[in-house]
Amino acid sequence: MPRDAQAAIDLRAAFDTLCAADPALAVDVGPADELIVKGQTELQLEIAIDRAKRAFKVDFTAGAPQVAYRESITKTIEWDYIHKKKRTGGSGQYAKVKIRFEPGVPGSGFVIENAVVGGAVPKEYVPGVEKGLTNAKETGVIAGFPVIDLKCTLVDGGYHDVDSNVMAFDIAARACFREALPKAGPRLLEPMMKVEVVTPQEYMGDVIGDLNSRRGQVQGMDSRGNAQVITAMVPLASLFGYTVVLSVMTQGRAQCAMRFDRYEQVPPYFPDGDDDFPMAAALRA
């Protein structure tokens, strides 16, 4: 077996072991066959990568961590699409769908419902619609990020006795998704982290000022012994290297903890950059 192939196998085995021990980690394979390691914070990814190199003796290179943005919509829209393909000397393909796309409740994920009545789309073809929509939502229309908090309702359609099949409805649903979403007010979403900073009183103003400069929103302040506790909601994209900056700012006397809280729309003035894993790093053996 070539060295590169064996190294890739060893790399995947190492991170499968790490993920089994830590549910806050996950792995996937990227479009260029690189291994994508997903986590909640920059520190968590750094620790996992260090453990893989030291404990499993795996040789690989790690790219810079990236924020896992998501996409959603802000308007409700109904869209029709007909997929029709004729073939000479045999059956063709035909599928008609009418799908309503509407914003879901934050945190609702991706929901598909079948509201067709009267047999406009036979039940045996509905799985094709569901598969097409499920695959389409993995690539949003703004920057190609997965779409979340979206409800898709199949409200009507049509079929042909000879030319209709599950594959035709799969294709129709995907095309309907791609045509409809740009007209439904698509928005880019960014992961928001709940940050808790414990700092001596004399550094409190500097800490709050720095959090504000990172587009953070201070939600509360409290006392804990001789220290002050600041709680804030901060975009993950603004937190790269934060622990180092905080240590320098407070002469190593402050501590911070952060966790993923939710996704929010990226402000229009801010450049574009598995919901439980808002950060990821690409690894190559």
Descriptive labels:
285 residues, alpha+beta, Alpha-Beta Plaits, Ribosomal Protein S5, domain 2, 3 domains, 5-stranded antiparallel β-sheet, 6 helices, 14 strands
Describe the protein.
By secondary structure, the protein is α+β, with helices and mostly antiparallel strands. It folds into 3 domains: 3-68 and 280-284, Alpha-Beta Plaits, CATH 3.30.70; 75-184, Ribosomal Protein S5, domain 2 (2-Layer Sandwich); 190-265, Alpha-Beta Plaits (2-Layer Sandwich), CATH 3.30.70.240. 27% of the residues lie in helices and 35% in strands. It contains 6 helices and 14 strands. The protein has helices spanning 3-21, 42-55, 126-136, 166-180, 204-213, 242-249; strands at residues 26-29, 35-39, 61-62, 66-67, 70-73, 77-85, 93-103, 110-114, 150-158, 186-200, 217-224, 227-235, 255-265, 279-284. The strands form 3 sheets. Strands 1, 2, 3, 4 and 14 form a 5-stranded antiparallel sheet that branches. A hairpin with a 2-residue loop joins strand 11 (217-224) and strand 12 (227-235). It is elongated, with a radius of gyration of 24 Å.
Number of helices: 6
What is the H-and-E element order?
Answer: HEEHEEEEEEHEHEHEEHEE
- Ends distance: 14 Å
CATH topology type of the largest domain = Ribosomal Protein S5, domain 2
If you average the pLDDT, what whole number results?
Answer: 89
Second-tier CATH architecture of the largest domain: 2-Layer Sandwich
Q: What is the percentage of strand-forming residues?
A: 35-45%
Q: Radius of gyration from the CA trace? A: 24 Å
